[in-house]
Design a protein that fits this description.
Strand content: 35-45%
Structural class: mainly beta
Radius of gyration: 15 Å
Number of helices: 2
Shape: globular
Oligomer: single chain
Order of helices and strands: HEEEEEHEEEE
Helix content: 10-25%
Largest sheet: 6 strands, antiparallel
Distance between the termini: 31 Å
Number of strands: 9
């Protein structure tokens, strides 16, 4: 079974908004200020949302990889993700997406999870319990204004039970690749 859906949907939804990127080791200016405890395994900038008990999430994210990492504006980013669905994910599940540019909220929008899974990944709801893995290509915009972008994607059932919650902070600098700061 494929996944780009639940994992990538949260991820790809954020990618179309601003894209998420990995730390460039040479540019890690505030390394000691961030914790990596909630970092999702793999080669990506994704972390689980802080200060939450993720043992109750309906999706256990196994890994997320992005390539290139860090990504390049105007190029295609490949997202490879896997996870374990603990309970059936049914119609009516949704994504709460928030993107901030510095302190300014750019996007606060809700998306139908099952619509997004069907349209972008070919996965139909209900999603049965079990292991999922998928790969998705995300085209990045050529022009991304420099600045700090914070992205949070909460994925919930129709009854507001958390499926997963992921976050990342991306810093775009003029004429350079993106830099990720860990949350």
């Amino acid at each position: 079974m494929k996944l780009t859906g639940i994992l990538s949907l949260a991820f790809a939804s954020t990618a179309f908004a601003m894209s998420l990127f990995r730390v460039n080791e040479a540019d890690r200016e505030v390394q000691d200020l961030f914790t990596l405890d909630d970092k999702i395994p793999g080669d990506s900038p994704m972390s689980l949302c802080p200060n939450q008990d993720h043992s109750l999430d309906l999706l256990n994210v196994t890994f997320i990889n992005t390539s290139p990492n860090p990504p390049v504006a105007g190029e295609v980013m490949i997202v490879d993700a896997a996870g374990l669905v603990k309970q059936e994910i049914r119609n009516g599940s949704y994504i709460d997406l928030e993107v901030k540019y510095g302190l300014i909220r750019l996007i606060k929008q809700q998306f139908d999870l099952c619509e997004q899974l069907s349209e972008h990944v070919g996965i139909q709801c209900p999603v049965a319990p079990g292991e999922l893995q998928a790969t998705k290509e995300v085209e990045l915009p050529k022009q991304i204004p420099p600045g700090r972008y914070a992205v949070t994607a909460r994925v919930l059932t129709p009854d507001d039970v958390q499926i997963t919650c992921m976050t990342a902070t991306v810093v775009f600098r003029p004429g350079r690749r993106a830099v990720l700061e860990w949350n």
